Each structure stands twice: as structure tokens, then as C-alpha cells.
UniProtKB/TrEMBL annotation:
Belongs to the cytochrome P450 family. The lineage of its organism: Eukaryota, Metazoa, Spiralia, Gnathifera, Rotifera. SUPFAM superfamilies: Cytochrome P450. This is Cytochrome P450. Gene3D superfamilies: Cytochrome P450. GO terms for molecular function: heme binding; iron ion binding; monooxygenase activity; oxidoreductase activity, acting on paired donors, with incorporation or reduction of molecular oxygen.
Length: 116
């Protein structure tokens, strides 16, 4: 990736933006999908064409389960937690607990809402 943006005084000013966009894209993929190797015993083989890449590397991608909550963070609070996700818990002898969250992407709040 560095070669395509150049170096020194004439380096592309868009490199930080491209890195940020690629990190966000990878984060969204990891947030919404379970990723696993097709062949768990895969050993890295470098394949060189115009760029370097892992030769024969294959992955299996599956949507994460129960993401209906996280995919739409603008839903009313009463609609966020489906009944099928709630479990009956005996509440006697339990002490109060605070669940705090931070972040601006909505996933922390969604996870906190699931815990509540």
C-alpha cells in the first residue's frame, strides 16, 4: 500500500484517509460477519503479481447471529431486545449493578442494552 501512495515531499496527501477508510471497512466486516479459514492447516505462501498476497488463501464468511439489534441502533428502547434473547433469571438475592458503555458507533450501547 505504501508504494502506491509515494514517499517524501510528493507523497499522496490522501494516504491517512485511505488507511482510515480501510480500517473502518475491516472493522465493519468483523463486526457483522464470522470469518474462519476454509483450511485451518493453511501455511502462508506468498503470491506475487502486481501486489503481494497470500496464495491459495480462502476464508468462509457467515453473518453473525442476533445482529438485528446492532444493525439498527435507532430503534426505540422498548423494541431493541427481542423476547427470544431475554432469559428468565431468578432475581432474589441479586444486588444492583451498573452497566456503563462508551463509544460512538452504537455497538457498545447495543451490547450494554443486551446485558440489561
Amino acid at each position: 500500500m505504501y508504494g502506491s501512495f509515494g514517499n517524501g515531499q510528493r507523497a499522496c496527501v490522501g494516504r491517512p484517509f485511505a488507511w482510515q477508510e480501510s480500517i473502518l471497512a475491516i472493522a465493519l466486516i468483523l463486526k457483522h460477519f464470522n470469518i474462519e479459514f476454509v483450511d485451518p492447516s493453511y501455511d502462508l505462501r506468498i503470491q506475487e503479481t502486481l501486489t503481494m498476497k497470500p496464495g491459495g488463501f480462502k476464508i468462509r464468511v457467515r453473518p453473525r447471529q442476533h445482529l438485528g439489534i446492532a444493525l439498527n441502533v435507532n430503534v426505540k428502547q422498548s423494541e431493541k431486545i427481542p423476547e427470544k434473547l431475554k432469559q428468565q433469571v431468578k432475581t432474589e438475592n441479586l444486588r444492583p449493578m451498573s452497566i456503563l458503555f462508551g463509544g460512538n458507533s452504537g455497538s457498545c450501547q447495543t451490547f450494554a442494552d443486551i446485558l440489561v
